[in-house]
Amino acid sequence: xxxxxxxxxxxxxxxxxxxxxxxxxxxxxxxxxxxxxxxxxxxxxxxxxxxxxxxxxxxxxxxxxxxxxxxxxxxxxxxxxxxxxxxxxxxxxxxxxxxxxxxxxxxxxxxxxxxxxxxxxxxxxxxxxxxxxxxxxxxxxxxxxxxxxxxxxxxxxxxxxxxxxxxxxxxxxxxxxxxxxxxxxxxxxxxxxxxxxxxxxxxxxxxxxxxxxxxxxxxxxxxxxxxxxxxxxxxxxxxxxxxxxxxxxxxxxxxxxxxxxxxxxxxxxxxxxxxxxxxxxxxxxxxxxxxxxxxxxxxxxxxxxxxxxxxxxxxxxxxxxxxxxxxxxxxxxxxxxxxxxxxxxxxxxxxxxxxxxxxxxxxxxxxxxxxxxxxxxxxxxxxxxxxxxxxxxxxxxxxxxxxxxxxxxxxxxxxxxxxxxxxxxxxxxxxxxxxxxxxxxxxxxxxxxxxxxxxxxxxxxxxxxxxxxxxxxxxxxxxxxxxxxxxxxxxxxxxxxxxxxxxxxxxxxxxxxxxxxxxxxxxxxxxxxxxxxxxxxxxxxxxxxxxxxxxxxxxxxxxxxxxxxxxxxxxxxxxxxxxxxxxxxxxxxxxxxxxxxxxxxxxxxxxxxxxxxxxxxxxxxxxxxxxxxxxxxxxxxxxxxxxxxxxxxxxxxxxxxxxxxxxxxxxxxxxxxxxxxxxxxxxxxxxxxxxxxxxxxxxxxxxxxxxxxxxxxxxxxxxxxxxxxxxxxxxxx
Amino acid sequence: xxxxxxxxxxxxxxxxxxxxxxxxxxxxxxxxxxxxxxxxxxxxxxxxxxxxxxxxxxxxxxxxxxxxxxxxxxxxxxxxxxxxxxxxxxxxxxxxxxxxxxxxxxxxxxxxxxxxxxxxxxxxxxxxxxxxxxxxxxxxxxxxxxxxxxxxxxxxxxxxxxxxxxxxxxxxxxxxxxxxxxxxxxxxxxxxxxxxxxxxxxxxxxxxxxxxxxxxxxxxxxxxxxxxxxxxxxxxxxxxxxxxxxxxxxxxxxxxxxxxxxxxxxxxxxxxxxxxxxxxxxxxxxxxxxxxxxxxxxxxxxxxxxxxxxxxxxxxxxxxxxxxxxxxxxxxxxxxxxxxxxxxxxxxxxxxxxxxxxxxxxxxxxxxxxxxxxxxxxxxxxxxxxxxxxxxxxxxxxxxxxxxxxxxxxxxxxxxxxxxxxxxxxxxxxxxxxxxxxxxxxxxxxxxxxxxxxxxxxxxxxxxxxxxxxxxxxxxxxxxxxxxxxxxxxxxxxxxxxxxxxxxxxxxxxxxxxxxxxxxxxxxxxxxxxxxxxxxxxxxxxxxxxxxxxxxxxxxxxxxxxxxxxx
Lengths: 733, 567
Known about the structure:
The complex is a heterodimer.
Chain A: H1 2-24, E1 30-36, H2 41-49, H3 61-69, E2 72-78, H4 85-94, E3 104-106, E4 113-115, H5 119-127, H6 135-142, E5 157-158, H7 172-182, H8 186-195, H9 199-215, E6 222-227, H10 229-236, H11 240-262, E7 270-275, E8 289-290, H12 293-298, E9 307-309, E10 329-331, E11 349-352, E12 358-363, H13 366-376, H14 380-414, H15 428-433, H16 435-467, H17 471-476, H18 481-484, H19 496-500, E13 502-506, E14 512-515, H20 517-522, E15 539-545, E16 553-558, E17 561-567, E18 574-578, H21 600-604, H22 609-616, H23 624-631, H24 638-642, E19 647-651, E20 655-656, H25 673-676, E21 677-684, E22 694-696, E23 700-701, H26 705-712
Parallel strand pairs in A: 1-6, 1-7, 2-22, 2-23, 5-6, 8-20, 9-11
Antiparallel strand pairs in A: 2-21, 3-4, 7-21, 9-10, 11-12, 12-19, 13-14, 15-16, 15-19, 16-17, 17-18
Chain B: H1 2-14, E1 20-28, E2 32-40, E3 46-55, E4 66-72, H2 80-86, E5 110-111, H3 116-133, H4 138-166, H5 174-186, H6 199-227, E6 231-235, E7 244-250, H7 251-258, E8 295-302, E9 310-314, H8 320-338, H9 347-362, H10 369-385, H11 391-402, H12 416-432, H13 437-453, H14 456-468, H15 481-506, H16 514-525, H17 530-551, E10 563-565
Antiparallel strand pairs in B: 1-2, 2-3, 3-4, 4-5, 6-7, 7-8, 8-9
């Protein structure tokens, strides 16, 4: 009995200890994320190192105080893949490899434009109960990829206005104006009017005000604040004064939010993270110069294509440029040999130029072009031979498309139309709990499935007709051309071979005039070279999925400067293989980079991702080798596969492809370290376990962000591929 | 000549141009100093640009210093005949001019202590025009409007020159940047109402706006040049960033086009010049380049202009820019001056002109008169002080830019430096004269003393009398020792309060900060001021928030070799 009693005491002690241990285990209860679009990691470093002689403080005093002295800073944090906002935020917001590969994408069969950056149609459609989320979030939902904020119930989160926007608080928008007017003294209003009002600044102030208010509510566990100020300014100006002015404002905003956190009820259990999606290629004294790929492709040298992109060229100089709903703009060629006047129906190049150090290009399938030309010129034999040469591939594509149509049909049948979709049909309590958004989301998804199903059916019918064409049907001419060649459709992806002998005209001799686009693009030159920092060649190299079909990527900087980057299926080792021998000037220029110290022997071997990152992150192209594989990674669905472009074009240093306006200050989108080097800093209250004064120099990429936040909040993250970052001060041995 | 031109152009384009600025301070009796900002041209000549009177209260403490009158030294008093001719409508020409006689001090442009007075004067003048002069009939309306427009354009021209020069001052010279911000605001009707604490914001926005324009126009012009197979050459006239650009054409390619070997297309939008590829006369242009790289200059543009580059000199048609300017001005003079149709007279006219301007503005037209004057003034001024540019090229550009002058009150660019020097000498004389600037200092202190010597009602009544007498009555109080001490205290309180506010916004307030000293000083100087009390309360709260976090700061030990702790 006595022993039993002792055992009971021991057990109670043990339980008590366990309980105590579990209490002592650090855990964050709230996360506040400050998302700063385009704030480079190198810029933050520079600001911290520059001292104001008058105050002896750095140019980022709040960042220095909160993160450098009292938090954790990651000195080598990189965006994974291309340094472009939508894909980069997608990785940060989901912790998953990117499924979106541009700021705009096109569906190859339907030419549907996925315009991820235009907020205006979303706001309007949201207010009309027609949309619930930004297009990028709709794509992620369709791909089954949740956002970080989805881990928190609707009532426990506050999302600011951003790219991956899940529903919005429309009432914030009118408040921007009213608060600006009511919260300021008349004198201050007059001063700001004379100096120049800024709506975006007012918007940020309102979002900050909402966030600070919500911090007082202990129920709210996820809060974020998004600012595109630095990105915007750095695109426009490269001078240090302008950028510093914006950066100082950002630093003060961080300070104010942190102060509000320290006064909030969950201060000890709150984590404050500052993260950016990418860096910025901006250098004081050097203008970033634009090269118009639209002008090139519409010209005779470029193949006289009708070109589609998602914004008006020089939109600020056109009345039509005021159209806030724009998502598709066609630029016609005045030398098209077979599609004259058909620019609206038959564009043959689709461009996503935003970014702007890279552009993705969809060419209409080379064989579809040839067939179109042969049909127009009534070269029946030629048409049949083209169909025969592609029969295997097109049949396979048709089967795959039919499977997708069936899947969409099943999804429609399995998902009933919600009974209520209008906001007014919901009670205020349901709206508070977000029930209305869930219902509207289902309705929007159903509409998308139905739309794609209908248009895919149209394409499959035409492809079926093409595959059943024979000499007799051709001779009888009982078809209209659009029944066989669907207007707007780009068809299957082109191979490298296709792009190297791309047909642009059917000559009377029956031969095709072709262009080798890989060579042509990489040899483009401009006449005005007025800045010594710039190459006369706007294009650095191009990248495409390798025809080898093993998931590898072909990088092409010239006929004798080709590299294949591939990842082995089994052990996930990455290999960088020059196809024409080792030499300087190969794409990504790893070998000759002064920051690459591992040597040629190392480069000849295959290595894991972590090893690659460690060895190359300081080079000019940072994690480019990993990035190209990320960019051409296997898509999760047929629809995602159809959004893939043929070619990714990378600009040379200080060049860009922007055409809607000018970005002379700087750009991003490439693999240049200056563009991929982003910001990550964390601070935690006393009970979060986040260390103080830690600077992590080991390189990490954006895949690590979401699992780290989830780990801090003790939420599951096993399905995420990224590692958890080291945040605690290590214990002495 | 052509050969010299070519060589000079090439040498210039690739030369590192260095011009500097300098500041001189002259003591003024009664506790002040005259600060003068000089632009140093390439040949080392110092050209005085702006002078301002600083009230130092006779001590070395910068916290009680105040800037008062500001002079634009190239802005001279106009003679009566010139002023009368400036009132003649449609007289679009410059008149002969000379430097002012020495000894007569120039008139200050503004008083930094009372910036709102220029706004009130501007509004009163406008009201007088609309309510009294316009109804008197066409001759009065046309003459007075023509005179006022010429006067304001001349003022804007001088302001543009001065702000352009001051832009070259070091960024950390807060005083100069403050003066520059005030000068920028003084070209706006309501600019005088902006408070001193927001001058930083004005300066910041101005710098950013200029940078944005420069970059955008650089790209627009470069891409248009590329598209038209022309050459683009950015220029740094008189140093500084590239504010202008020259377009040129290759002589060899022009010959090929003339003989039909190539047929380059020409997209003239934004360029404002005729197609050079069909202009065979260009091959015989006096500006042709026989040697070197064979470029023939076509046009010079200002890059510091909103929306699109502004054509300032067309090398083939020197009168084209002037014609455009005369047309714009004549339309304005005819509609407002002669017909008496104002934009605000009727909705239809307002809507029509607004729509017209909006469409043209969207298409990149140079609609903004103030910006056109600014672009013109900057080039005119920069050419007059530039010494690195080849004389032939400079002369060619100066000839063309001179043709743009439409204002009878405008002086020749060649004598601007002389005017500035003469007026500076006169001002120096005033500085040494006890009844000159010293008296001004005394009067400004009397103005200031009035602010705390009278009650609110007394102040309002006196201000009303001041405006009703068009400034003849000046509300002033005789200064005494206690009054001077009060001025000193009041100024310091203002300075400390602004400084503390800025410190609290800019950075965490730490225990060792000078902010604590500032707060203590404030508490001592203004113990009963409720606004200061609030400010100090906020300061204490912030101090309490940041201190615990600071005290918890620990030095971390590295977890892995990659983690580096703070030193």
